[in-house]
Design goal:
- With 210 residues, the chain is of the alpha/beta class.
- It has helices spanning 26-36, 43-55, 69-79, 87-99, 108-117, 134-137, 154-157, 165-174, 188-195; strands spanning 4-7, 14-15, 103-104, 121-126, 150-153, 181-185, 200-203.
- The strands form 2 sheets. The chain has a 5-stranded parallel beta sheet, sandwiched between helices. A two-stranded antiparallel ribbon has the order 2-3.
- Strand 6, helix 9 and strand 7 form a beta-alpha-beta unit.
- Helix 2 (43-55) packs antiparallel against helix 3 and helix 3 packs across helix 4.
- The radius of gyration is 18 Å and the shape is elongated.
- The protein starts with a strand and ends in a 7-residue tail after the last strand.
């Protein structure tokens, strides 16, 4: 018997205006960081930072081990000779560029309401971009957080899907067995990761759905 329903976040529960691969938007995002942090602007700074972001872009370079945002942005600020006291502000300005207008899909709240009304436990397991801290990444689900019992990110797990670590952590937090949970995601890695430890899965296609 299924006791818990868990979800990926991006393009499953939450609609973003930005693409899955952020590389085409590095320049304006880094420009926002520089301007908002009062760093002396130059195109050379931005061009020098882009290879660092590309190195940690999991859409370009596959990895399952999660990397801390502090590691990534300390590297960028170090390259720019900027004091690390600006680390948190720089991260916030970079991430916020991609989180603008992030909203739940229109069907999400009614579905979550129905599930909670039928006493299902609700979980979230999401891979974050560039080691995004929970304080930033979980803002995206604020509008539906009242329905969610447990929210786990790849930062919490230390690994990215399809690695089993996040799924195991989610099962433990929800106190259910693998066969008692359904996991819903929009990518193959969601399905592979869930299935390899016995979790029932469902692939959702949001490409043509509002």
């Amino acid at each position: 018997m299924i006791k818990a329903i868990s979800f990926d976040v991006g393009h499953t529960l939450i609609k973003y205006n930005s693409p899955l691969n952020w590389n085409s938007l590095y320049h304006p995002a880094l420009e926002q960081v520089i301007n908002e942090c009062n760093i002396n602007y130059s195109d050379e700074k931005i061009e020098a930072a882009i290879p660092i972001l590309t190195k940690y872009n999991t859409r370009v370079h596959y990895r399952e081990v999660e990397i801390s945002s502090d590691v990534i942005f300390s590297e960028i600020l170090g390259l720019w000779n900027v004091n690390l006291s600006l680390l948190n502000k720089a991260k916030e300005k970079f991430y916020s560029f991609f989180q603008t207008n992030a909203i739940p899909f229109i069907d999400v709240e009614p579905v979550l309401y129905k599930l909670k009304s039928n006493n299902f436990k609700i979980g979230v397991l999401t891979d974050v971009a560039y080691g995004m801290d929970n304080g930033f990444s979980l803002k995206d689900i604020n509008a539906i957080s009242k329905y969610i019992d447990v929210a786990i990110t790849s930062v919490d797990a230390g690994f990215r899907k399809p690695n089993s670590a996040g799924f195991q952590k989610l099962l433990s937090a929800l106190n259910v067995k693998p066969y008692e949970m359904l996991y819903v995601g929009d990518e193959e890695k969601d399905i592979i990761g869930a299935n390899k430890i016995g979790i029932v899965s469902a692939l959702i296609n949001r490409n043509n759905k509002e």
